[in-house]
From TrEMBL:
Domain of life: Bacteria
Lineage summary: Bacteria, Bacillati, Bacillota, Bacilli, Bacillales
InterPro entries assigned: Acyl_CoA_acyltransferase, GNAT_dom, MshD_Acetyltransferase
One Pfam family linked to the record: Acetyltransf_7
Keywords: Acyltransferase, Transferase
Occurrences of domain N-acetyltransferase (ranges): 7-149
PANTHER family: L-AMINO ACID N-ACETYLTRANSFERASE, N-ACETYLTRANSFERASE DOMAIN-CONTAINING PROTEIN
Organism expressing this protein natively: Ureibacillus aquaedulcis
Protein name in the entry: GNAT family N-acetyltransferase
EC number: 2.3.1.-
GO molecular function, one term: acyltransferase activity
Length: 149
């Protein structure tokens, strides 16, 4: 289904912290089938104190509502989540393409092995599996992907 509205991509601002974390948690919980292990407040602190200072964080916004987010630098995508009601409408592609353009020509990212939709999405957009691990707080198998320009 193609979207019939305009999504704005804006730099992250803490005024969107609660919306961003709520969307992120809901999307992640749906994707992996388990509740987020951190409290809402800890998740906001992580976004503002750790993620935002270390990565470029951009938001997809529709009518002042956060419908997607990406955190990346020139060689890695740390987070990419789309609001559960807006998945499959091209928002993830828009955010992913921004990271590719800004990259040094190669990007890596991890996704959970249980998240089959993410695997299909990344593989469709040129990412290839280069490794696997269990090195995450959720204790789930991770897949390491790489994209090369």
């Amino acid at each position: 289904m193609r979207r019939m509205y305009t999504i704005d991509v804006i730099p992250y601002s803490s005024q969107y912290a609660e919306q961003t974390v709520e969307m992120w948690r809901n999307s992640k919980e749906k994707a992996i089938g388990q509740k987020e292990i951190h409290s809402f407040d800890n998740h906001i602190d992580y976004l503002n104190q750790i993620l935002y200072p270390q990565f470029r964080v951009e938001l997809a916004v529709l009518n002042q509502q956060v419908v997607g987010m990406i955190a990346y630098n020139d060689h890695e995508i740390s987070q990419l989540y789309i609001h559960v009601d807006y998945q499959g409408q091209g928002i993830g592609v828009t955010l992913l393409e921004r990271a590719k353009i800004q990259s040094a020509g190669k990007l890596t990212l991890y996704t959970f092995d249980v998240n089959k939709n993410a695997q299909k999405f990344y593989e469709k957009h040129g990412f290839r599996i280069i490794g696997r691990s269990h090195d995450n707080e959720e204790g789930l198998l991770d897949i390491l992907y790489e994209w090369v320009r």
